[in-house]
Automatic annotation (TrEMBL):
InterPro entries: Calycin (IPR012674), Nitrobindin (IPR045165), THAP4-like_heme-bd (IPR014878). It comes from the Eukaryota. This is THAP domain-containing protein 4. Pfam families: THAP4_heme-bd. Residues 15-60 form the THAP4-like heme-binding domain. It catalyses: peroxynitrite = nitrate. PANTHER family: PEROXYNITRITE ISOMERASE THAP4 (PTHR15854:SF4), THAP4 PROTEIN (PTHR15854).
Length: 71
C-alpha cells in the first residue's frame, strides 16, 4: 500500500496581492433565475480559488439547484 501526503505549496510571490481571494466562498442566500421558456428557479453557488505554487489561480465554480442543496 502506498500513501501520498499533500503539503501546501508556497504561494507564488506574484499572487500575494490576491491571497485574500484564496479559499472557498459560498452564497449566503439562494439566487433566483428566470428565462422566458422555463419556470423561475433558485440556486446556490460555491466558488473555490486555489493555487499549486505557480503564478496562476485555479478556479472552480459549482452551481446547484437550491432544492438539491444540503447543509
Amino acid at each position: 500500500m502506498s500513501w501520498c501526503v499533500m503539503t501546501p505549496a508556497d504561494l507564488n510571490p506574484s499572487l500575494v496581492p490576491l491571497d485574500w481571494l484564496l479559499g472557498t466562498w459560498e452564497s449566503d442566500e439562494p439566487g433566483e433565475g428566470c428565462f422566458p421558456t422555463i419556470k423561475p428557479f433558485h440556486y446556490t453557488e460555491t466558488l473555490t480559488f486555489s493555487h499549486v505554487g505557480q503564478p496562476v489561480i485555479n478556479f472552480t465554480w459549482v452551481i446547484l439547484g437550491a432544492i438539491n442543496f444540503k447543509h
